[in-house]
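Handoff note, outgoing to incoming analyst
You'll be picking up this chain. Sequence as last confirmed:
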Amino acid sequence: MPIQIDHTRTRELAPRFDEALELVRNEFESLDSHRQYRNAFARLLKPDPLDRVLMMGTDQRDLFVPHLQRTIETSLSKGGHIFDVGAGDGQTFALVAGSVPRGTRISIEEPNAEYLAAYTAFLRSQPHLEPGAAVEASFDDIDEASSRSAIALPDDGSVDLVLALQMLFFLSDLPAGLARMVRFLRPGGTLFNVVADETDGYTGLTLNAFIEAGGDTGHNERHQSAIAERRRLLGSPELGGGAIIDVLREAGVPARLEAELQPSRLYGHSLADLIALSNISVLSEVDGTRKFEIAMKLLRDHPDAVDLRIEDDGPRRGMWSVTQPQWVSRLCRVG
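Most recent structure output, in case you need it:
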């Protein structure tokens, strides 16, 4: 059973919280916002040297990858087409590539040229797969970038499976972006989406605490409303979600929604890691180190809100963790 950290324990551990904040300040204070984000995000991607889990820093992939594998099995046959949007460097897709049917075409969209090159190289190493379009652009600009570069996107109505894995944070207009993704799907095709539910998650709670303390992200209201919008659109109807169905119907691409809230977590080898992980979302756009002070105070003063604990069994035994639930949803185009 995990060791729950309550207010009594945080008072006893006060010097460790101060020490952890000092370590983070020393690491991050001289870095620009991009390098701050890279340093924080790297903590999520630490592999387990014994291959017991997919990553040590989070169980998000542990939880959604089996669902993705089942979706691949039910959505694809030989010669199908996958479009991975906001694709990253291909690390996540590599976890399921072996289960993709022979002859499947894989198209990718990714704004980071380095990541795009890494993903493309991985696809070339998979003889059972067929590389498709590789578009260097944000999803917001995908059609314009395709026209500008003369790289043909998959035709509307031609894709069996669109993957949107932890990338919806980067869309400027979430309803419009989701409708564009669904348009790529053939009737019966599936948009498989994973996105953190920051309504009750550590990064969202830290953002709220930062704003309440007078912090400015440059777009406070927009960032907070975006968290609520993701749940309203893609959450299960039982939890106040499902609004994307009406949006897609009005856009002329009706779909059916299946949504599951998974109780995923963020893990750190130390308190300093947890403080740094507050910087993997919106706060990554904020310069300086005051945001880390706010994160430390949230962990110390409101451990119950973030479900702060120390793992006492399993592959992450001895690690600190906080809650970061995620929505796993499937939008199946029905017409």
